[in-house]
Amino acid sequence: MRQLVYLFILCLGFNVLGQNKQLLYNVDNLPQTLLLNPGASHSFEKHIGIPFFSGFSLSAGSSGISVYDIFQEGGDFNARVRDAIFNLSDKDFFTVNEQIEIASFGWKPRFKDIYYSGGVYQELDAIVYFPRDLAILAYEGNASYIDVPFEFNDLSVAAEALTVYHFGVNKQVSKKLRLGARIKLYSSIVNVNSTNNRGQFITRTTPEGDNFYSHEVQNASVRANTSGLVSIIEQEASPVARAILSKNLGIGLDVGGTYTLSEKWTASGSLLDIGAVFHRDDVNNYELTGSYDLQGIEFIFPQVLDGTATTPYWENLEDEIEEQLPFNDSLQVNYTTWRPIKANAGLNYGFGKNLFGDCDCTNGGKNQYESNVGLQFFAIKRPRAINSALTAYYDRRWNRLLRTKLTYTLDAFSKRNVGLLLSANIKNFNVYLAADNLLDYPNLAKAYNASLQLGFQFTFEPD
Amino acid sequence: MNYLLKGTFWLLLIALSFASVSCVKDVDFEQADDFATTQKVDLDLIFFDLDTSNFVDVVTEEVILVIRDTTRLEFLDDTFIQDNLVQIDFLFQYENTFSQGFFNRAVFLNEQDDILYETSFEVDPSLNGEIETTQFTEIVIAPELDSIKNAIKMFIELTLQPNGQPLEGTLGHKSKAVYTLEFSDL
């Protein structure tokens, strides 16, 4: 119970669509756009990031509750906690995502319209669904919920920290089409996964039964897989070596493209992290399976004969439960986790001054307008559902120094998410800062989610 | 290097402008200390079904007036129960078709078999062989509750109350308890 409450309150601090980087998508002067669409249009022909500083992003979110909802001053704190537990659904979740680019580079070979890019980044991604049934059971007990099932599939957690080595190719394959692909090697540092749980607990009234109730655990199949965790916790092993290259490797692919629909219209799309991690080392699994029906202890009132021991009811009960509902914490079974696949799509309309000049054969038909508006779509496959968001934006290059992108993002959880990107180029040095949910900045406690991206890097654009 | 300085200056300026308008306010995290909830756990306790054979000695075939059975209740010793249990609501129920009544004792004992807590009641006799239902409830709170918390075993004892009629019938027992637990410290 205590742990559940801690988890609940802790999760409030991490608030949704953790990996949506709508502010960086299709921003063609930032190399990070290639990580969001390997087939993105870009204006640079070489880039190199400052190690550990070229790209940092942090996002946290809650789909159903804010810190303020619980911890606002005044009123009845416990009533708010109770309301939160009952108002949140098992579809609500808490996420946190963090990425640090350790190295980032890219170049365009001379006389070729192809761009190679690569690098290394470290990522932490976690999602915890609100285990509503179990939270209610822990918070209030079963007395008010006779004949109401508590579902174990409410328990769904996926968390991983990993290092990603990647290399991508971006090529103009025709006058109108640019395609790209990025191959990724995942090196898992720590993974915790418990997403396909089944079963239920119910206290059933049994008017014709042996006792008032039947306390039933039905078809329980609750499993948690971990890798890299036990050695850190029990053997205090350093995660640094695992961060460089662990034995839990995976492989993934990003693909994407940009299509020029007309002089001013372009469409783009990408699929990211099509891949899996194979956990083979430092693996531990925890499993509870089976069914059990408890109606209390049945006294048999044995007639006491000399030398007859009393019936060990309690020990028998414990043995019975262990036999029919075994909990195994010593399994070491390899497992595979799929990366959360992500999709981006965009439709862009450019207007105003064409920075590449009028379209002619001297500029390869490229258009780069000082202003762009458009729509972007983002979706991510999560353990329970596909979460999606729609963004409208206005992107403006004010001069050679400053570029801004203003976004309005709509998703199931927020209808007031306004974000802003500021990107400054001083000659070849680029610095960018992006943040969303700006309307909540006056009081972040009221925000359901927030994200921040920033970075320093050198980008080299053609003269 | 000049680029770096200028870039850093720009970033700091931008970050400061964000920071100047962002804050977390009107919240009080100290309220976590006030967290409290009440949990009510409703659980079956003991059940049995007896008939005439349970009251007749298998060797001498004489009537046994007193029968008793005991179980350990290890969960009473659990730290969570010890720290948070504030009330127990017992419900005992008998369905009796014997023409005789019974006297029921539910007794809680420590490891040394010392009686720490006891509750008792009469089980009504059946009229005309029909099922006679007796229900008995008992609410235990402090200070008596501490006696149960210190117990580790429980027995139920039934004393037959002869009435000169033939000993024939069945006696069914159901019992449960609602454990009220209050947490106030995280």
Automatic annotation (TrEMBL), chain A:
InterPro entries according to UniProt: DUF5723
Protein name: DUF5723 domain-containing protein
Occurrences of domain DUF5723 (ranges): 38-436
Source superkingdom: Bacteria
Organism from which the protein derives: Dokdonia sinensis
UniProtKB/TrEMBL annotation, chain B:
Signal sequence bounds: 1-19
Keywords (A to Z) from UniProt: Signal
The protein's name in its UniProt record: DUF4249 family protein
Organism: Dokdonia sinensis
